[in-house]
Every structure is written in C-alpha cells, then in structure tokens.
Amino acid sequence: MNPSLEHARALDAADPLAAWHDRFVLPRDAATGRELVYLCGHSLGAQPVLAAEYVEEVMRDWRSLAVEGHFTGRHPWMTYHQRLAPALAELVGAEPLEVVAMNSLTANLHLMLASFYRPAGERRAILLERSAFPSDRHALESQVRHHGLDPALELIELGPRHGEDCLRTEDLVATIERDGARIATVLLPGIQYLTGQVLDLESITAAARRAGCRVGWDLAHAIGNVPVRLHDAGADFAVWCSYKYLNGGPGAVGGAFVHARHAHDSGLPRLAGWWGHDPATRFLMGPDFRPAPGADGWQLSNPPILAMAPLAASLEHFATVGLPALRRKSVELTGYLERLVQQRLAGRVQVITPADPPARGAALSLRLLGLTRDRARAVFEGVRRRGVLPDWREPDVIRAAPAPFYNGYADAWRFVDALQAELGT
Ligand SMILES: Cc1ncc(COP(=O)(O)O)c(C=O)c1O
Q1: Which mutation among 106, 113, 199, 243 tests ligand 1's pocket best, with the greatest number of atoms within 8 A of CB?
Q2: pTM for this prediction
Q3: CB of 241 closer than 6 A to ligand 1?
Q4: Is the pLDDT of residue 425 over 80?
C-alpha cells in the first residue's frame, strides 16, 4: 500500500461519504484554531450541526406552546420517542415495536434484568465476560445480591485463553453447553470495549437459547458501528447508550430492545412506571398497570425531550445514509489504518483488535510495545499535542476510532504519523 499523505488525500477525494464531515462540528485546537483529528467516536461521537437546530426547536415550542407542546407543534412531545424508533430498529435489526429510546444504558440494563434475570432452582447464574465494562459487572453483581445470592458463586466470568486478547466463540458456546442448566441469563457485549472485538451474536444467542437461558446484549460499542440483527438472532433483550457512534451527545438518552415474543406478555415481571402504561388508557389514571405493547412497556417516566433532540438529528442522518454505506466505508478506512500501522510501526505497536473485518468495527486498539506505563502514557499525550485525539486505556493501549461519518483517510494518516513521531522510529 502507498503510505503517503497524497495517497490518503486521493482516497478522501474518492470517498462518496466525504461531504458528511461538514455536517458535524469537530473540536479545534484552542491556540491555532485548526480542526483536531478526532478519533474518539467510540467514546463520545461528534456533534451533528443539525442537533442545535433540533434542540432550539424544542426550546421554541416550550416558549410558545408550553404545555400544549405535548400535542401540537411539528414534533409533539407525547410521541417524540416514537419518532426515534424506526431508525433505531433499523440499526439493531429489529421491528420498531421492539425498541425504545429511554434512560441510560446501565439503568436500562437493570430494568431488563428485572424481567430477564429470574433466578430459580438450579438456574441462578449469570454468564459474562471477565473484562466486562465495570458498569455491567456492577449491575450484574448487584442484581445477584438483590436476589439474596452470592456473586462469587453465581457470576460465571469467561476470559480469553492464556496469552490471547480476544474471546473465542467456541469457548463461550462450550461454557454455555457445559453450564447451561445453571445459567439463568447470559449478558455479553456486541463489541468488547477494550479490544474492539465483535462477538458472534448469532451463534452465542442460539447456544444460550438452546440451553434455556435468557440472553441479552450490551450494544454500547456496536450500535451505529456494525450491523446487528437482534430480532433474527432471537436475543431476549439488548441495551445501548447513544453518545458513541450514534452521536447523541454527552449522557444521551440510551435505548433498549425487547424481542417481539415478549411484546404482549403482560405477565412478565417488570419494574413499572406510568410512561410504560398503555397510552390508550394511561390518562385514565387508574391504579392498575397495563403495559404498552413492546419495548415501550418498559418506560418509566415521561421522556427528556431536550435530551432526545440531538439524537433525533443524528438518527435522521443514519436514516439518510444507511448503515450499509457507513459500514462499507468503515471497513475500508479501518483496514487502511491497520495497514498503515503495520507498515510504519511494526514491532513498536501491536494491534489487539481482530484482523478479520467482520470481527471488528471502526475502532482499533493499539498496544504500545516495550514501554513502561509512564513512557507509553507520554507517547499518548504527545500524540494529543500534535492535534490528534485518540483515547487511552491503562496500562498501555491507545484506542483510535475513525468514524465513517466524519473521519477520512488523511485523519488515519495523521494519527499514524503523530504516533510514529512520538515513538521516535
Ligand atoms: C460497554 C459499555 N457498557 C456500559 C457503559 C455504561 O454506560 P452508561 O454510563 O451510559 O450507563 C459503557 C460506557 O461507556 C460502555 O462502554
């Protein structure tokens, strides 16, 4: 591959999605005013220009319509969350009935576990991965305790094999087959947040269901990044946040998926609130709870419309471009970044993200080899001083995510160039 900046620029010139960059606001260097190379879409996605307009629209409706904004205006607040469902459903391979924008990821995980972690008899355990995102682990452990059980006995944590960084599907499936009778719920990430590995959602879900377990997915790093097919896979539930690849803004409203086979099961135990009540009778204000069909039935409160407005803007962009086109570019761009790293940083950097395109999304995790923790951290700081923003995971990993909406090939080139300069190779 031609490793020159000119070649990277030529690839950008030929990129059919390149113009989308201008629909996002990217951070700039305070001193020079120059746009930074922003590679943190896996952490906090960039702001869509349209987001400010949509927030202002809600502010305007609030000023001019006040309480009537619930029913009038261009996007009445009573049904505002439903406006987001079709695009979310498309991204996670679901029917609109199966998804809802609400709360935040961890809150949604607890709500889902209240329904889908029901330990009974011998079936009391939860299967998770050993390097699960801490919030997932805290949620799972506290759920086990909430049921009066012992996390030391009931959390089954599976990690990569000795000397490996990534999980193996066959190990997860073998564990489910071996311990399935004691596993109540399987909870795994669509993409592992440290390594960027895409897990085989179909095979693992199928194995879990064969073993009679409930199965749910944390899609924090997967939604808006890689194709996901929750409905066809048969997952019971999934949860996600919207501030990463969905560009919904800091602490954006998250989401949940509940499979259609549970859509009308009003007998499922759940933690209820008035917004989850069937809207047809919600305002009769009766004492009985009758859940709305589908994922909507897990809502608790009336939604934060101001917080949903940026997400509405971003999802409109996803609906316009479509995930297949974004993913096509993403596979090319991430592949280009990896080849550049291999060419220019061989022996200094190890890519721990899987090499196989279907097994990874937009982010690469790069381990800095042969450096102390402090020296590795100094390299990362140096890259930032050069106007490039990846992120850092202790003790020696830099994660860089070229997001196909607003990053290009020259961004990948500048990152590798800055890293090489800091490594002094
Ligand atoms: C994989 C994963 N799970 C869970 C969370 C927690 O999300 P929240 O703070 O929105 O509950 C994050 C946050 O970055 C995450 O990356």
Answers
A1: 106
A2: 0.97
A3: yes
A4: no
